[in-house]
Write a structure and sequence with these properties.
Layout lengths: L1 H15 L5 E4 L18 H7 L5 E4 L16 E4 L5
Parallel strand pairs: 1-2, 2-3
Length: 84
């Protein structure tokens, strides 16, 4: 019984530490790229659209004149110079 419990605990731990991609946004990279760190999106909405539940969108300083819609996604948007 102990062996089963430790295997289950290990599976639960590894599931909680799964890799979640980060999507990058920088208004200096218009019209926008692939969302990678070296070729970020230009618009926050593009980052949201690319992200899946549990993923992050990292937004560089800038001016983003857009309406955004999370479309019901459970994602986190962070600023490069601050918290979420």
């Amino acid at each position: 019984m102990k062996r089963t419990a430790s295997i289950m605990a290990g599976l639960m731990l590894s599931a909680g530490t799964a890799y979640a991609p980060t999507w990058y946004v920088d208004d200096d990279n218009c019209p926008g790229g692939t969302g990678s760190e070296v070729d970020p999106f230009c618009k926050i909405q593009a980052g949201i659209d690319a992200a899946a539940d549990g993923e992050d969108v990292l937004v560089a300083d800038g001016t983003y004149n857009e309406l955004i819609n999370f479309n019901g996604k459970a994602i986190t948007i962070h600023s490069t110079n601050g918290g979420p």
